[in-house]
Amino acid sequence: MVVDDHPMWRDGVARDLAEAGYLVTAAVGEGVQALRVAVAAAPDVVVLDLQLPDLAGVDVIRGLLATLPAVRILMLSASGEQQDVLDAVKAGASGYLIKSAGRAEFLDAVRRTAEGDAVFTAGLAGLVLGEYRRLAAAPAAPEDRPLLTDRETEVLRLVAKGLSYKQVADRLVVSHRTVQNHVQNTLGKLQLHNRVELVRYAIEHGLDG
Known about the structure:
By secondary structure, the protein is α/β, with parallel strands linked by helices.
């Protein structure tokens, strides 16, 4: 689903996605409209503009996740301001891409977002990880942590370092599906919802070194 209040931009994004083989289930220009049609549209990925005429982007993120907890949200915004990026990620966005990105970069970001990666325009990933480190609480006592297997912990460490699922799979000499299964199991055990929350957990518990 594409959510952007500029018709030409919205239509262009939807067209690029369709030409790349994606099914665009909805393309809307307002936040309230997006929240209203989301259930029927049932998107796996939402490409969302930060600045909408009726609702703040962060409110749309929270509303979408409340209705569709498994949906992945890729912000596509003209703003690269630090606070805008952090607010979007803290609200639950899976990634953040600046609108100056080229078509190939955008389509790659959509593909990776659909696969569960946290995707950011160059330079923004470090900003987000830096903020999570700044906010990190004191590590919990080991006995207070949910029990992860050695392999789940190993996968978590690599994901927290910023490796894609494919890179983790190559490093551990396992399949991409096996890495996804480990991540899903870890999310379930830790009661987390997406890769961004997983990275934050790893940083807070000293597993990103």
